[in-house]
Design goal:
Blueprint (H helix, E strand, L loop, with lengths): L3 H10 L3 H4 L17 H22 L12 H8 L1 H4 L1 E2 L12 E4 L4 E4 L4 H11 L7 H9 L3 H11 L3 E3 L3 H5 L2 H7 L5 E4 L20 E5 L4 H11 L3 E6 L7 H7 L4 E4 L6 H9 L3 E4 L13 H7 L4 E6 L14 H8 L1 H4 L14 H24 L3 E6 H10 L16 E4 L5 E4 L30
Parallel strand pairs: 6-7, 6-9, 7-8, 9-10, 10-11
Antiparallel strand pairs: 1-13, 2-3, 3-4, 5-11, 12-13
Helix pairs in contact: 1-3, 3-4, 3-17, 11-17, 15-18, 17-18
């Protein structure tokens, strides 16, 4: 049983209606307070990922049929994982003081400064000191028009969004482009013979190799799903762009993690691609083209490779190359206005639901693409945009806001090899035979940039 988002995602992936009937009603749905159907978005995305993994297991003769029963408290914990996380018993600081809503001369903006390089650009744009307080930012943004600050930030690589209502966003040229796109983009690039499944293992994606070039939340959630379903996931990061410690520990479960500089290690990366079944990227569309890592070039050099991309704004339209995060998309598309508690100050969804649901939907698309490649051949490409999910959520029937109910959130305890003890959210996926717990994350950048077994 799925809602509007689940049906739209299933239609985009071409999943048969009979398969959707296997999704059972959610057990104790998340008890969040919102004017939008954010709980349905969350459970739909987890259900679709779980169903797609079941279908992949069946396609390779490695799984049995059964209902997909999503556990609401696990979904609630997973989507609020940054609140569940404890590192050696301590709650990490999640938000930078430079991230938040700020008044402008004609409205509001939302900023994002969690990464040091984004914070540096934001301070330079606003002409504030490195030790700027929130009061300094209040003064610095007050003289700007919201859209002018948004546009200037895009020019210098800072992250600022003008807060819009839904009607204003719907008339925006980029919103109109997105409205014509499916919730999940799917295509086949060029000719390629069907690849063979690896020898069957205990999980739906056992033996599948995934190269992970994603950061922040949505992409790592997708690749964490794939790792939980048995894939060997190798995350690669540039040594010049360290990941935020808590963020890696929160969503790095089950993956290997290595450092590789694409500017100097291209031959090594090509060798990894030769052994890969899937490449997942989370950079802006076109950002990797200078390395020959656009989807068309990859399909030519590595026929049969499944490529997948998560982005804020999608691959086409005037904002395709802009930077963005979940909170920024919420502000831009009208969600922040809808979620205002007082009708004046912008608000936010109770969890970063665009990121988490985007990751699960991308995992569903990847599992489906693997089945189709091994059935019909080709070089599949799939893509998910957070802004497109936001528009789907806004188009769903409104929810009646009610006070958030108390809900006990499950947690798992594990230890990073040679590192801290973690308390974290358990896996939400409900495919047949899904492990009850996550394999622990490894220290960021601590593995060799190679596949297991050579």
């Amino acid at each position: 049983m799925v809602g509007d988002v689940g049906r739209a995602a299933a239609a985009a992936l071409g999943l048969p209606g009979a398969a959707l009937e296997r999704i059972a009603p959610v057990v104790e749905p998340p008890a969040w307070s919102s004017t939008l159907r954010v709980a349905a978005l969350a459970t739909d995305s987890v259900a679709l990922a779980s169903l797609a993994l079941d279908l992949a297991a069946e396609a390779r003769g490695a799984g049995g049929r059964g209902p997909v029963v999503v556990d609401g408290p696990r979904v609630a914990a997973s989507f609020a994982s940054d609140r569940v996380l404890r590192v050696d018993g301590e709650k990490p600081d999640v938000w930078s003081p430079l991230s938040g809503f700020w008044r402008t001369a004609d409205g509001w903006v939302r900023t994002h400064g969690n990464y040091p390089h984004h914070a540096e650009r934001l301070r330079a744009l606003l002409e504030v000191r490195d030790d700027a307080s929130r009061d300094d930012l209040v003064l610095a943004t007050a003289g700007w028009a919201a859209s002018d600050l948004e546009d200037r930030a895009a020019e210098v690589g800072a992250i600022v969004a003008a807060v819009r209502d839904e009607a204003t966003w719907r008339e925006h040229p980029h919103a109109r482009v997105l409205a014509a796109e499916p919730l999940i983009a799917t295509m086949s690039l060029g000719q390629a013979a069907p690849r063979r499944w690896p020898a069957s293992g205990p999980l739906p994606l056992s033996g599948i190799r995934v190269l992970d070039l994603t950061r922040v939340i949505a992409g790592p959630v997708a690749t964490r799903d794939l790792a939980h379903a048995g894939a060997e996931v190798l995350r690669l990061d540039s040594p010049a762009l360290p990941e935020i410690d808590w963020q890696h520990l929160d969503i790095g479960h089950g993956k290997r993690t290595a450092l590789l500089d694409l500017r100097v290690d291209r031959d090594e990366f090509e060798r990894l691609l030769t052994g890969a079944d899937v490449l997942v990227t989370g950079y802006r569309p076109g950002a990797l083209a200078r390395y020959g890592l656009d989807e068309d070039s990859l399909a030519e050099r590595h026929p049969g490779l499944v490529t997948a991309r998560i982005s804020a704004w999608g691959a086409s339209g005037p904002w395709a190359h802009r930077r963005g995060f979940d909170s920024i998309v919420q502000a831009t598309t009208g969600i922040a206005v809808r979620e205002s508690a007082d009708g004046e100050t912008p608000g936010a969804l109770p969890v970063q639901a665009l990121d988490h649901s985007g990751g699960h939907l991308l995992a569903a698309a990847i599992a489906t693409a693997l089945v189709r490649q091994r059935t019909a051949g080709g070089s599949p490409h799939v893509a998910v945009a957070l802004a497109r999910i936001a528009q789907q959520l806004l188009a769903s029937p409104p929810a009646e806001r009610a006070p958030a109910a108390t809900q006990d959130l499950p947690a798992q305890v594990s230890s990073v090899p040679g590192g801290p003890e973690l308390t974290h959210a358990p896996p939400p996926l409900a495919f047949a035979g899904a492990p009850d717990g996550f394999a622990p994350p490894r220290p960021w950048g601590s593995d060799a940039a190679s596949w297991s077994g050579g």
